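Box 3.1 A note on notation
Throughout this textbook, protein chains are presented in two layers. The first layer is the amino acid sequence; the second is a token string describing backbone geometry. Keep the layers aligned when reading.
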Amino acid sequence: MVNKTERFADNSTWSSIRNTMNIIAGRDLLSYTLLFLDDAENQPTGTHISINNENIMIGRAEHCKIRYGEKYATVSREQCYLRCDKDKVILQHSPQASNPTLVNDVEITFDHELRNGDEIQLSYGGPKLRFNKVESKLASAGITGRLNVAISQATKPLKTLIYSLGFITLLLIGFAGYTVYNNMEMSNEAKLMASKIELLTDDKELLTDQLESLIESGDASVAEINRMRQRIYNQNSRINRLNQQLKENPIVKKDVTTVAEEK
């Protein structure tokens, strides 16, 4: 009985997301390579691509995963499809294609399971590819390698999403770093002001003791006593200004608010 060939359902964005997550997680997936025996767009003869559990279109249309240029006039916009079915890779000829798809020089009119070394030809006299199923090595690959594979196979909308999320993540990391640095700066500033206040307070107390000694001795003139009182007043003003600045420091404000809430 001949299997009916239905129009291929390409990977949706959600399907691509699921596949991407599986690749990043390093799960064992169905993997295969395609060796280009003739030039394709951005794929010179002799190069190959690796596919991990992905359904792909082949043809001349812009949305095809493997695309051929206008010099291959016998290749249809959607010539054929490769889909993963559990542990098998199935070649499916497009019902819209005007020319046949061949495997090992035999025309395919139904779903065909590919085997290692199979040679796919897109129409008589058209370009060729060689298929090889390979053992998945994603599990042993590092996270960077798995990310590269995932991005290379992601659909365009998913790639845009991945890059957008990456950009947002970098912004958040940068903002977090700036916040930590800024808090450290404000904390150091608060410590410095507290240290100055402590020194000025000690100095004011020393001046106050000297003033009391002058008054008790009765030897100091009124002008000298007034000068000493002015120095103490100036010192006290500086202490008050620093205390006000210290209270306005966001780090100190947060600590004060927290203490007030606990009370």
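The helical segments are 13-25, 143-153, 156-217, 222-248, 250-262. The first strand starts at residue 31 and ends at 36.
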